[in-house]
């Protein structure tokens, strides 16, 4: 049976909502809202994708700590069974994050003991997948999967040291790369999304640069265009990138065109920002396809 897969640490978010500002040292401020939720990353992408009816294998780490128990309960609620790459290890293999949401932005403080897993283990669990989300680990596993015909989608977070040279092995291996605007400018050393897309074209036949609220810039066969976002009431952008990636992978998994797959990503990413948290506003497959019909005019 065909499936999608990815390996990465679970993120558990402590969300402090409605903060007027970040407190200074020695100060205490009370939030107007609080929730404990599953955060972003590879597991969140694949949980979104699972909700769209795609079989997934979530390769991650769970320990014996209280946050791992919370994550296990959440996986049960989502009807997903993760592959535990940290079985038998001590410590906290998850990323624990306190996220402070102010009127203008978000601030994070995180902790983890790290997830230690071999590339061989990741390859054996992901072998046979049609689409795999890549991270900045397990490069030997991705090479084997690519040689067997797996579609590789590379996604990263912000890195102060990101550059074409430091990411070259991943960029040369991946079929798709999904940076946001800030990441695309940083990694290419350019000052606008269009120039960044032209630089990335040396690695990819189909280039993606996410433009946040303005949609998604794509470049294919030397032709550049922007696919607009769907109209939504924005509440919180936490997890929007993971949700976008789930929609994109849904399209690739089902052999939709590049532009159609990006529109799926805009729909899932746009839906995500209407609620607080990474997985609070998920779509079913039928809901996604209905919205795809509704917004297909965005493709021109």
TrEMBL record:
Pfam families: PfkB
GO MF entries: kinase activity
PROSITE patterns named in the record: PFKB_KINASES_2
Residue ranges of domain Carbohydrate kinase PfkB in the record: 31-280
UniProt KW DNA repair keyword: no
Keyword Kinase tagged: yes
Superkingdom as given in the UniProt entry: Bacteria
Cross-referenced InterPro entries: Carboh/pur_kinase_PfkB_CS, PfkB_dom, Ribokinase-like
Keywords, in A-Z order: Kinase, Transferase
The protein's name in its UniProt record: Carbohydrate kinase family protein
Lineage: Bacteria, Bacillati, Bacillota, Clostridia, Eubacteriales
């Amino acid at each position: 049976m065909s499936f999608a897969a990815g390996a990465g640490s679970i993120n558990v978010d402590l969300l402090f909502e409605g903060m007027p500002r970040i407190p200074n040292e020695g100060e205490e401020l009370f939030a107007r809202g609080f929730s404990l939720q599953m955060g972003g990353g590879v597991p969140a992408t694949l949980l979104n994708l699972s909700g769209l009816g795609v079989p997934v294998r979530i390769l991650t780490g769970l320990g014996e700590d209280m946050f791992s128990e919370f994550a296990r309960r959440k996986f049960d609620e989502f009807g997903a069974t993760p592959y535990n790459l940290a079985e038998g290890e001590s410590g906290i293999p998850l990323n624990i994050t306190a996220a402070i949401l102010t009127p203008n932005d978000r601030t994070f403080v995180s902790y983890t003991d790290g997830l230690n897993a071999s590339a061989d283990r990741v390859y054996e669990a992901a072998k046979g997948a049609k689409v795999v989300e890549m991270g900045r680990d397990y490069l030997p596993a991705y090479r084997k999967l690519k040689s067997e015909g797996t579609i590789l989608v590379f996604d990263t977070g912000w890195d102060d040291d990101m550059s074409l040279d430091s990411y070259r092995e991943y960029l040369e291996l991946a079929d798709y790369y999904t940076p946001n605007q800030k990441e695309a400018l940083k990694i290419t050393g350019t000052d606008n999304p269009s120039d960044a897309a032209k630089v990335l074209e040396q690695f990819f036949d189909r280039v993606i640069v996410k433009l946040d609220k303005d949609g998604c810039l794509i470049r294919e066969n030397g032709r550049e265009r922007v696919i607009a976002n769907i109209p939504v009431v924005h509440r919180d952008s936490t997890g929007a990138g993971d949700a976008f990636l789930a929609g994109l992978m849904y399209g690739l998994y089902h052999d939709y065109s590049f532009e159609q797959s990006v529109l799926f990503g805009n729909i899932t990413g746009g839906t995500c920002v209407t609620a607080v948290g990474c997985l609070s506003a998920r779509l079913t497959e039928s809901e996604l396809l209905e919205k795809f019909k509704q917004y297909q005019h965005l493709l021109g």
